[in-house]
C-alpha cells in the first residue's frame, strides 16, 4: 500500500482508530500488505466505490455514517452470496480541504461497521483526489459449494424480498428538498426513518445465510431497485419473472412521505436503489421455512412478491398485466 | 458489486475481456461477489488507488499501460512481503467523456498484467466519476510465518536494493518537457527507457520470494523513493541506516538524461518514487546468496547500499557524512 503527502501522520492516526482486537489478523495496517488467516471454505471477494457527488453528498452525510455505509454496501454483497465477511481494505482519495478530524470520524464509522459485522479492517491506501473517493474491498468466506449465485432461478420458483423497499430512495429525495421543507419532514418519524435508510443501510448477513441454508436457488442484494436487479437475476438465470405489484413491501415511511415527496411510493420501491435488502428465489417449502426463521431470529420480514416464469418481465396489478420496466437507480444523475 | 448507468453493456464487454482461464476462480465477474479458492498458508491483502491528475496523466499514458500499472503497483506490495499474488478486484470511476474502446483497452492491460503475474481478475465495480479513478485490491498468499515485514531490520544488517533507481521519476520529468524536447528525447534509447520505467513498471515477485527464502530480515517496495521508504523501514524496525551514496544504483537512463532533465541523477534515485524495486535488509551471507540467485534466475542485480545502525539516517559520500533527508515522491503536486 502506498503512502504519500505529509501522510505518515494521517496513517498513524488512522492506525490508532484501527488498533485493537482484529480476529484473524497477523499483521494489520502499516506494512506493504496485511497478513491474515486464510478464508475457510471458499473465499468471496467484492469491491464497491463511493464517490462524492455520485453516491453521496459530502455536505449531507456525517463522516461516521459515510464510513459505515462504505463498509456495509460491500458486506451486503457478501451477504447476498450467503457468506460471512472477514476482512476489508480501503483506498481513500481525499481533497486537500478535508480535515483530519473528518477522516478520523470516517475511519471510526468504518471501524464501527466492521465491529458490527465481525470483519477486520486490515489496510488501506490514502491519496490526494479532487473529490472524496472511497473504494472498499471485502473478503469473506462461505462453506464449499454453498454460495448462492444469481443464475440458479428456475421457472416455478417463488420470488421473495427481505424487509421493505424504497426507503433509501425516499431519503435521497427528501435530502434534496428545500431546507425548510426538509426541516419539517425531519420533525416526523417517517422523515427521520427515510434519511436513516439512506445513510445507515443494514447488510442482511444472517438473513442471507438463513436463505442459503433454507435452499434459495438464486440470490442478490437490491442495490439498484427491484425492477432492475430482478431483470439481472432473470438474465443470469435465463428465465423471466411475474411480480404482483400489490405484494411489493413498500416502506411505510415512503407511504407516509408520498405526498411530500411528490412521487408514487410503489415507483420508489420498484426503481429506487440502495435498499440493500435481499432478493431471493426459492420453492414454497423453503420460503415458509426461511420466513419463519427470519422473523424469529432477526425480526425481519420475508415477502413473497411473485414467481419465476420462462421468459419476460411481467407486472400484475388490479389493471391486469403489463411489462415490468427494468428502470434502475441512477443516483444523483437525474436527482439534482 | 454495484452496477449503474447504462452499464450492463460495459460490464458484458469487460466480462468478455476477463473471460478465459482463471486459476482458482469458481465464479468470476458478474455476481454480487466472486467465489475463489482460499489462499494457501497466510493470506496477503493490499489496495492501491490511481487517480488521473495525481498518479497519472490521462493524455500521456496508453490505457493498456495504465491498466497494467494499476495491477503491478498492487502486485509489488505482495512481492514486498515475499508472497504470490492470486486474485484482483477493481473499482473503476469513469467520467462520461471516456469511450468504451478506452475502457476495453484498460481492462485488456489489467488482464495482460494478471496473466503475466499469474493472478486472476475476479471482479469489479464501475461508477461515474469526475476523474478516471482506479482502485485495485490484490489478494495473495505466502507460506505461514514466512512473510517479510518492515519491522525486522537489526543493527548490522546490510541494506540492499534490486535493479536501478530513479527511472520512473526521470520518466515523469521527461513527460513534462515541451513536446519538441520530448520528441528529441524519445529518439534516444534512454528517453524511451525512462518513459517505460514510468508507464510499465515491473513487480519483483520472484525476486521478493528469493530474498525472503535467503533470509531477508525486513523488506518493502520502493514506491516513494529510497530515502523516504528507508526511513519508514527504519521507523518500523526501531533502528537507523547509513547509506553510501556512491553505491546507490542510479538508473543508467537517468544518468544519460541528467543534462536534459536538469536534475541530479542521484537526487532522483534517492527521492524519486514509483520504481517498485525492492528494498531489503539481510546479513552478508544471505545477501551473497540472494545476489547470485537474482542474477542467475532473473537477470536482476542486487546492490548493497549501506548498513542498518542503531539510530539516525546518515548518507556517506566523498565529502563525509550528512543527514539523509527522507524526502519523498509527491507525484504531480510539485511537478506541474
The total domain count of chain A is 2
CATH names the topology of the largest domain in chain A as Phosphoribosyl-aminoimidazole Synthetase, Chain A, domain 2
For the CA atoms, what is the radius of gyration of chain A?
20 Å
**What is the molecular shape of chain A?**
globular
Poorly predicted runs of chain A are 1-5, 331-336
What is the percentage of strand-forming residues of chain A?
15-25%
Task: Give me the side-by-side strand order of the main sheet of chain A.
Answer: 8-10-7-11-9-12-13
Structural description of this entry:
- Two copies of one chain form a homodimer.
- Chain A is of the alpha+beta class and 336 residues long.
- Chain A folds into two domains: 8-142, PurM-like, N-terminal domain (60s Ribosomal Protein L30, Chain: A), CATH 3.30.1330; 158-333, PurM-like C-terminal domain (Phosphoribosyl-aminoimidazole Synthetase, Chain A, domain 2).
- Chain A is 38% helix and 24% strand.
- The first copy, chain A, is built from eleven helices and 13 strands.
- The first copy, chain A, has helices at 8-18, 63-79, 100-116, 167-175, 179-186, 189-199, 205-214, 226-237, 252-261, 265-271, 284-298, and strands spanning 25-27, 34-36, 42-51, 84-94, 120-128, 133-142, 158-162, 218-221, 240-244, 278-282, 302-309, 313-317, 320-323.
- The first copy, chain A, has a seven-stranded mixed sheet, with helices on both faces. Chain A has a four-stranded mixed sheet with strand order 3-6-4-5, covered by helices on one side. The first copy, chain A, has a two-stranded antiparallel ribbon with strand order 1-2.
- In chain A, a hairpin with a 6-residue loop joins strand 1 and strand 2.
- The longest helix of chain A is centred in the N-terminal third of the chain and has 17 residues, at 63-79.
- Chain A is globular, with a radius of gyration of 20 Å.
- Chains A and B meet through strand 2, strand 3, helix 2, strand 4 and strand 5 of A and strand 2, strand 3, helix 2, strand 4 and strand 5 of B.
- Strand 2 of chain A pairs antiparallel with strand 3 of chain B.
Amino acid at each position: 500500500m502506498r503512502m504519500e503527502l505529509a501522510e505518515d501522520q494521517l496513517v498513524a492516526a488512522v492506525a490508532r482508530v484501527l488498533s485493537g482486537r482484529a480476529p484473524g489478523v497477523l499483521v494489520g495496517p502499516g506494512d506493504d500488505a496485511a497478513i491474515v488467516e486464510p478464508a475457510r471454505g471458499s473465499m468471496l471477494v467484492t469491491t464497491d466505490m463511493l464517490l462524492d457527488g455520485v453516491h453521496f453528498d459530502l455536505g449531507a452525510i456525517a463522516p461516521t455514517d459515510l464510513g459505515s455505509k462504505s463498509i456495509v454496501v460491500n458486506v451486503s454483497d457478501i451477504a447476498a452470496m450467503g457468506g460471512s465477511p472477514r476482512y476489508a481494505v480501503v483506498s481513500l482519495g481525499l481533497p486537500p480541504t478535508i480535515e483530519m478530524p473528518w477522516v478520523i470520524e470516517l475511519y471510526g464509522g468504518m471501524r464501527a461497521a466492521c465491529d458490527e459485522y465481525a470483519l477486520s479492517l486490515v489496510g488501506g491506501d490514502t491519496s490526494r483526489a479532487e473529490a472524496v473517493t472511497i473504494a472498499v474491498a471485502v473478503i469473506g468466506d462461505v462453506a464449499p459449494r454453498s454460495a448462492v449465485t444469481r443464475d440458479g432461478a428456475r421457472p416455478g420458483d417463488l420470488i421473495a424480498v427481505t424487509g421493505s423497499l424504497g426507503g433509501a430512495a425516499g431519503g435521497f429525495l427528501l435530502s434534496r428538498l428545500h431546507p425548510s421543507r426538509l426541516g419539517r419532514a425531519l420533525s416526523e418519524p417517517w422523515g427521520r426513518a427515510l434519511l436513516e435508510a439512506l445513510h445507515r443501510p443494514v447488510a442482511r448477513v444472517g438473513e442471507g445465510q438463513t436463505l442459503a441454508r433454507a435452499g434459495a436457488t438464486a440470490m442478490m442484494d437490491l442495490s439498484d431497485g427491484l425492477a432492475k436487479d430482478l431483470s439481472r437475476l432473470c438474465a443470469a438465470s435465463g428465465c423471466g419473472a411475474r411480480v404482483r405489484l400489490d405484494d411489493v413491501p413498500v416502506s411505510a415511511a415512503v407511504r407516509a412521505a408520498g405526498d411530500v415527496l411528490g412521487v408514487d411510493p410503489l415507483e420508489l420501491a420498484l426503481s429506487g436503489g440502495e435498499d440493500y435488502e435481499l432478493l431471493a428465489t426459492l420453492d414454497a417449502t423453503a420460503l415458509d421455512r426461511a420466513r419463519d426463521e427470519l422473523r424469529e431470529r432477526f425480526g425481519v420480514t420475508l415477502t413473497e412478491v411473485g414467481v419465476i416464469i420462462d421468459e419476460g418481465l411481467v407486472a400484475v396489478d388490479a389493471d391486469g398485466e403489463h411489462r415490468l420496466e427494468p428502470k434502475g437507480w441512477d443516483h444523483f444523475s437525474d436527482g439534482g
